[in-house]
């Protein structure tokens, strides 16, 4: 009885898949926050390397060749294993066959290095010497720190103060890779200084940290890196789905489930399968799972809004809860974001996938069940996908359908044990976004 | 340029290798602490399942078949990858080819589940319902907790109080798998109560925790499990070397390096290669690396001593610093043990391998270099092996010899980031065992 489907390095994908090439209508363009004119590629050049901008906005080629230097770093952990969750199936007494693509074996423990390595490479090739970024719970920051170490780039990470204090291990991991880590809000930027002037004890937010990192990227030979949401980031993550496509060839999925925060892990898994669906090869359902505390797809509005809390960035049309919406204190820090990838938002409107929201406790229940059966301790983020997988597998147990369910386990939870401890001791919060809070935040849309 | 050598599940070894079958002389028997008569197998039955006792003491079969139920659990992560450290080689400008067998991808992040799963299985098959054990930094405790979850066993872990307080994440991991974790010394055993009576603020020690777990195993349907040192544990770990033998077939090693605490990771990697050396297939050097703070092989005495600090256990002939030797505060908790596997000790006396000791700072320097080049953050324990690998690779850079170096990276350091933080900030201790302390402890040998 096979448990893992491995691919050796000769099967490492050579190309990322650009889903925009197969869409009948393109997502609406980002707009200048001032005059609402469409953003031109060169407007993004102070922030990102040209190749990254081209991939995200200009290119409509179906495939983008992965540079050999990037594949060389990918080889440290890719292709990742596809694992059949026999023991979880048995515990659920389900006829469903459950597979998960395990991205947690990357050096920093999540799928984030897939794009961090690409972004560090394109910057280094363009002569950039330093990258800035923000990080919430530290997954993205450590991925970029690792990637910068591979290409000899300096790295400055603004880490949300609350996480900086509560997750010293993630901070140390970034420093171990050679990055400088700043508690945000910091005195080092005017955005940070302003936030500190308003509240010297501010715990920070991803929105403020973005503002700081963007401001700091104005220095010479410096650019900014973003870990989700943008088209090019989703493109880089399609390596997950490309590998899974080959690994699932013998048992094609009926249902593909992924967690969505900014959207890159779900997109990375789903896009290559969508392509094959459009080509008529098979016809699975696609299900995106978000937290009930921050339900941008299921309860947000599809409208132009800012990426950051302060309203510095261009406007993107996306599913949003309002840029000043503050989600409840859930442990899936990677999902505490008011918006959704504009590309995924557009595709959701086109009906390419379904979405559902899960409560924090249901997600941790699924995580505990998964750890006790499959051994791996999942991060709080993929627990959302697992909660939906468990629900669907139980449905199969009732109906007797032997469906094939595929998900991505996008990261391990080794730095999230405190959340499990709270859950096991019955002290885990279970916040749900209050309707009046969403309504109020949506009145502030630009 | 290949980075990883993967084996699919059809190559999962079917047998462990019993090195005692190929030794001309057997290790001296363990003795009763009272009358110093040799321990009989049935004397161990209250502590361990019969199959485990047979494997460790009685059987001289060269190979032991791995039960299918154990292999089924191994398949969750085994065979583990063998990785060529191209980037580390480049950083060292060495002609040496460096390979590491990566055991950190197991569910709990180390090689410990290799024996935990086997021990849980043999106990469950014998009708045992509950296992007790001790744990220092939590690696072994979480491995056993995971293994018990796989076979429906209850699990009680006595965790050294200092670690219990400082490593809540490891504690939560054990609880996540369903184990009960007790801070040691505890009031629940007479050994713990006695220690608390002597010092109510005792930080505990592995020695005390062993005494507590052994005492608690006297309950009905309960046995005790040990994570290193014993022959059967070393046997179970040979799956590491069996896999590596196949993976290294195309590039046979000139040097095999492993860290030794109790000795199971080094033995697990080295024994199958020793067998092939004896058969004349090749002739590598074997090098065991221990901490300068706890140098049982290089500075201890080969003599009968207790396994525990309190002197409750049988006497084993082994390299020991004395059972009441208290090593300095190094972060490699898995190496803070006064003794060495009796089997490895015997083989060291026979000249089958070399040994060296490394200081804590040199080890962490190697760990930082490894993380920045290869991405993976190593645990403090395998940093000892890496320090020796770096030294040997630099020697090759000087001499121009293109040696093939193989080591085992026995665990990741995700729960050890505090130690890295101390090292990076220049605050890491660098203790070395004082000669007078060793001398004094050795005067207390039984």
UniProtKB/TrEMBL annotation, chains A, B:
GO terms for molecular function: L-serine hydro-lyase (adding indole, L-tryptophan-forming) activity; pyridoxal phosphate binding; tryptophan synthase activity. Its cofactor is pyridoxal 5'-phosphate. The beta subunit is responsible for the synthesis of L-tryptophan from indole and L-serine. The lineage of its organism: Bacteria, Bacillati, Actinomycetota, Actinomycetes, Streptosporangiales. Belongs to the TrpB family. PANTHER family: TRYPTOPHAN SYNTHASE, TRYPTOPHAN SYNTHASE-RELATED. Residues 76-411 form the Tryptophan synthase beta chain-like PALP domain. Pathway: Amino-acid biosynthesis; L-tryptophan biosynthesis; L-tryptophan from chorismate: step 5/5. One of its GO terms (cellular component) is cytoplasm. PROSITE patterns: TRP_SYNTHASE_BETA. Residues 427-446 are annotated as: Disordered. Keywords: Amino-acid biosynthesis, Aromatic amino acid biosynthesis, Lyase, Pyridoxal phosphate, Tryptophan biosynthesis. Its EC number is 4.2.1.20. This is tryptophan synthase. Pfam families: PALP. The keyword Electron transport does not apply. It catalyses: (1S,2R)-1-C-(indol-3-yl)glycerol 3-phosphate + L-serine = D-glyceraldehyde 3-phosphate + L-tryptophan + H2O. Tetramer of two alpha and two beta chains.
């Amino acid at each position: 009885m096979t448990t893992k489907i491995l691919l050796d390095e000769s099967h490492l994908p050579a190309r990322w898949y650009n889903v925009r090439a197969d869409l009948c209508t393109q997502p609406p363009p980002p707009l200048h926050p001032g005059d609402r004119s469409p953003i031109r590629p060169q407007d993004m050049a102070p922030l990102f390397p040209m190749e990254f901008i081209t991939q995200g906005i200009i290119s409509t080629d179906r495939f983008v060749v992965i540079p050999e230097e990037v594949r060389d770093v990918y080889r440290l952990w890719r292709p990742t294993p596809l694992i059949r969750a026999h023991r979880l199936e048995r515990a659920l007494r389900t006829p469903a066959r459950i597979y998960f693509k395990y991205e947690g074996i990357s050096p920093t423990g999540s799928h984030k290095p897939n794009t961090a390595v690409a972004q560090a490479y394109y910057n280094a090739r363009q002569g950039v010497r330093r990258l800035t970024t923000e990080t919430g719970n530290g997954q993205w920051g450590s991925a970029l720190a690792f990637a910068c170490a591979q290409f000899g780039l300096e790295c400055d990470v603004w880490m949300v103060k609350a996480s900086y204090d509560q997750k010293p291990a993630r901070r140390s991991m970034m420093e171990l890779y050679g990055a400088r880590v700043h508690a945000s809000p910091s005195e080092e930027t005017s955005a940070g200084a302003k936030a500190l002037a308003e509240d010297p004890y501010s715990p920070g937010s991803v929105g403020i940290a973005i503002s700081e990192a963007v401001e700091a990227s104005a220095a010479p030979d410096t650019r900014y890196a973003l870990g989700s949401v943008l088209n090019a980031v989703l493109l880089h993550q399609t390596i997950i789905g490309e590998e899974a496509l080959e690994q699932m060839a013998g048992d094609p999925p009926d249902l593909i489930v992924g967690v969505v925060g900014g959207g890159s892990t779900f997109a990375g898994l789903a896009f290559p399968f969508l392509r094959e669906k459009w080509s008529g090869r098979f016809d699975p359902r696609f299900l995106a799972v978000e937290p009930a505390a921050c339900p941008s797809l299921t309860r947000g509005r599809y409208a132009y809004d800012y990426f950051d809390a302060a309203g510095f960035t261009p406007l993107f049309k996306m599913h949003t809860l309002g840029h000043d919406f503050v989600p409840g204190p859930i442990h899936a820090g990677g999902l505490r974001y008011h918006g959704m990838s504009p590309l995924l938002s557009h595709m959701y409107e086109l009906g390419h996938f379904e979405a559902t929201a899960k409560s924090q406790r249901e997600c941790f229940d699924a995580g505990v069940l998964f750890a006790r059966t499959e051994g791996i301790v999942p991060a709080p983020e993929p627990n959302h996908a697992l909660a939906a997988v468990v629900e669907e597998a139980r449905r199969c147990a009732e109906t007797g359908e032997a469906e094939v369910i595929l998900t991505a386990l996008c990261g391990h939870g080794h730095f999230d044990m405190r959340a499990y401890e709270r859950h096991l001791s019955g002290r885990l919060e279970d916040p749900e976004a209050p309707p009046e809070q969403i309504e109020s935040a949506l009145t502030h849309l630009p």
